[in-house]
Structure formats: structure tokens, C-alpha cells
Amino acid sequence: MEVHQCPDGLWFNANKKQCQTPAESGCTVTTEVSPTWTTPIEACWGVRPSQTILRPYPGDCNRFIECYGAQSTVMVCPPHLYFNEVRQLCDWPSESGCDGDDDPRCVDGTTSYWPHPECTKYIECYQGQGYTMECPSGLYFDPEDIMCEDPSQSSCGHTEPTIGPTTTKDSNWTPDPICPWPSNERYLFPYPGDCTKFWECAEGERVAMDCPDNLWFNPILLVCDYPYQSGCIYG
């Protein structure tokens, strides 16, 4: 069998047995899509389904991890602000409780190795500082064996989430009309007339929250931001 090739820009029409323009040929091209794999995020283990929690990003105070059930998204605070895990928002560095690149697990100055939120990475403590290291391609860090190994042998990513207790609502309770329900996802809304505040919806209830001093709520990024770039207008 001899294989023939159409001239450049033309496709073969199997019905008419001739080369034509792609639009006239009736030929379709299918593309094989390679499967994608999601690396388990250890920081989100134990988060209940439909629950949203913010967790710190190891070694980088300017970032944080948004956990929605087992799903995770790395978020970035505005420049020069740090994530405050207690208040669950971006804050001034002096108020955030985060010590920059100083990992609290590395304070004793010894060389040690700790798990990272991403299974393909780990934290190496050296002379009091924490450094993010990469495992060789295709391997996961095992915090028990303290080495990179095959994912099937690593304990990273195989822990079942812990289901926490559920909150029982009063029989007369009704959700706030502005808050999506039923949903445990974290929703943030601007607070009318006050850029320093914002509304947070959690489990159908609306709570007024305050941004750190001298910061305003940014309704686009959904974080407390510098006033000049927050996009918030009083009135």
C-alpha cells in the first residue's frame, strides 16, 4: 500500500476521493488528551467536605492555601502583607504571627526534614532556616521513612480525612438571605458604606469582619488590601 499526501493546506475527502479545503473535506481531527494528575495537598487533610479553611503556606508568609474539602488552591496576599492564620486573612507582618522564612520546626538549629503541603516536596531545616526541596520526578516524600520514594510506598496523600462534628441548627433557624445555603463554603462580600469591613458567610450565617488597621477590603481579590488598590469607594 502506498501512502499519498495532500498538498499543503488541503485535506483528503474520503467520499469524493480527492483533496479539498478542510471545510469541504468532511474530515475531522481528534486529539488524544493525556490524563492529568493532582498532587495531594497534606495541608488540607482533615478538612470536612464542603468546608472552607485557610492554611499557611510553609516558608512563604505572603502565600496561603485555601482548602475546600480535599481541594486546594494556593493564594497570594497583596505585596508586603502576610497571612494571619488566626484571623484567616492577610495582615501586616508585625501582626500576622508569621516569621517570614523562619520555619518554627527549625529553631533548634539541627538538620532535619519535614513534610510539605505538596507530596512532591519537603522542608529541609539547616542552621535554623527552612528550605523547600523537590523530590526526584515521580517520587513523593515519606515523612515516616524521611526519604523520597514511590507514591505507592509513601504515606503522603493516603491519610483519610477526619470528619469533624456537625453543627445542629435550632428548629426555628433560617439562613441569612444573602448567604448561599446549604453550603459550608466561605463567601465574602463588601460591607456597604465601610471599606474597612466585610461580610463573611459561613454555614448560612452572616458575620461582620474587620480588616487590619489601615487596610480596606478588596471585593475582586476577596482579601484586605492597601486602600489605593482595593477598588473600594466610600459612600
Commentary on this structure:
By secondary structure, the chain is mainly β. Among the domains are: 101-155, Chitin binding domain (Antimicrobial Protein, Tachycitin, Chain A), CATH 2.170.140.10; 187-230, Beta Complex (Antimicrobial Protein, Tachycitin, Chain A). Helices cover 5% and strands 31% of the residues. It is built from three helices and 17 strands. The protein has helices at 22-25, 93-96, 227-230, and strands at residues 11-13, 18-20, 52-56, 63-68, 71-76, 82-84, 89-91, 112-115, 121-126, 129-134, 140-142, 147-149, 187-190, 197-202, 205-210, 216-218, 223-225. The strands form seven sheets. A three-stranded antiparallel beta sheet has the order 3-4-5, with no helix packed on it. Strands 8-9-10 form a three-stranded antiparallel beta sheet, with no helix packed on it. A three-stranded antiparallel beta sheet has the order 13-14-15, with no helix packed on it. A hairpin with a 4-residue loop joins strand 1 (11-13) and strand 2 (18-20). The radius of gyration is 26 Å and the shape is extended. The model is unreliable at 30-40 and 159-166 (pLDDT under 50). It comes from Asbolus verrucosus. One of its GO terms (molecular function) is chitin binding. This is Peritrophic matrix protein 5-A. InterPro entries: Chitin-bd_dom, Chitin-bd_dom_sf, Chitin_bind-dev_reg. Pfam families: CBM_14 (PF01607).
